[in-house]
Amino acid sequence: MGLANVRGELVICVSLSRVLGVEEVSSRQQQSMIYERLLVANWDGQRLAFPVDEVYGIHRFEPQQLKQPPATVAKSRGTYARGILNWQQRAIGFLDAELLFSTLNRSLS
Question: What is 1-55's CATH topology?
């Protein structure tokens, strides 16, 4: 998407919806009021920024809480899904950060 100024540092900004091949939902289609945010992630010394609609904070979980992703997702080509986590009556997709950042790093080089 370009560069973002994060506290005086230029950080590459990436659209996860584009990378993951998911459709973005426009604000008009959503029922609740959403405020866009910029999430800055650091993986192995590489910082990237991702536009997000909401941030619920940082939550810890035990690895045994992670369930296998559905077969249609797990077997699909180019999947970054590592599993599904149940959190507050929602199924949350857990991404493979190492694979995602590795892929993004290769595409940015």
Answer: OB fold (Dihydrolipoamide Acetyltransferase, E2P) (2.40.50)
Alpha-carbon gap, residue 66 to 103, rounded angstroms: 23
pTM over 0.90: no
Edge-first strand listing for the sheet containing 37-43: 2-6, 9-13, 46-52, 37-43
Give the type of residue at 72. Answer: T
Average pLDDT over residues 50-66: 83
Distance, in Å, from the CA atom of 17 to the CA atom of 23, rounded to the nearest integer, reads 7
Domain boundaries, the chain: 1-55, 57-109
- Reference 83, options 62, 100, 71, 69; nearest CA is 69
